[in-house]
Amino acid sequence: MPSISYRDAVNDALERMDDLGYERGQGVDLANHGPMGAEALAVLGQEDEVARWVGRYRRAMEHHEPPAARFALDPADESCWRSALGDVGRAGDWERLFGRELAEAHWRDVLARWWPRLIPGLFAGLTHGLIRTAHAVRGLYAAGGEPAGFQLKELARGLAYWAARYTELPGRPRLRGRYALSAAVAALPRVPHEGGLAPGTARERLDGLGRLPGYHEALEWLAPEQAPRLLSEMTVQFADVYLGHPEVYPVPLIHGVTAPAAVRLVLPHLPHEVHAQTVAQLWQVQAAFLLAFTVDRRDEGTSVWRSQLPDAPPSMVELGGRAAEHGDEHVIKFTEACLREYALRPDPRYPAAALAAQRRIPPLDGGGGVGGLRPDTP
After folding, report:
1. pTM of the full predicted structure?
2. pLDDT single digits (tens) 112-133
3. Among candidates 223, 227, 211, which has minimal Cα distance to 184?
């Protein structure tokens, strides 16, 4: 049994990282993964490792300074706050706005009010605005009726990062088609690129997303379905996508699982009328991931991944322990999401994908920055 509780481990981690800005790195803008990684590590039953991991994470890469608030945003003036969406220079203003809102109303009411406003910009920071918000929500729910100040501040920061990096993709996704998720993934045309995807190609593809064949049509392919079921279809299919593309730089496609798994954490706290819009926006993001980061289907939908498994695959508990030892924040979050989804739908592709990420991504202390990784933004 851990000697420290989930709540105490998370609150201690948030306090230790309170001085970190929203992003990190020199010459690149990578999302601050510290609060998300620490919370996921505690969920994996590694509460005693959280404080040590925070120290490892802080040493791995320098973070930007926390942004200062400059100009007040009026939540009652739609033209005022809309003009600040997607402006990372206003991150401090957004944090102050959400901090004020959370001081005046219950966090569920603030979430319900702002979720439909932010969900069209779900792609923000490669979905890290959404994911950071979801980890904060889980911490607040676990706290019950007495959330600590750092937990409310973390939700304010998750929402603020989402708003400041708000990114709308072209087109309007709607659940009005006939495709199941697996069929939609298989039918989406992949655009070949001579010599594979060079650095910068994914960015170019995202910038020209609306011109890629099949993209706009795909936004209306998915059949209407209950949100929880569609989330499970998304996570298992994108675990399959991750397994099927060992040739792709191993971080971006992880978000095909962690983003819908994050939505699952928040869904019970949202009005039912926003569920369909949420999963439709998620499918738009998933289509963008596939078109930007893959050039063909490679080994998707096959059992090739089974040959990569050891004779005696690790248990779920062992996978969590391995993620903690590995230390990379993407590995920790991905492993936790895969194991949580596996508990709901015991498909072997979830633990296999978690194991693949632990193998493909260098460990946190492996040198060359966080996990020896190149930027996880396109």
Report:
1. 0.95
2. 999 999 999 999 999 999 999 9
3. 223
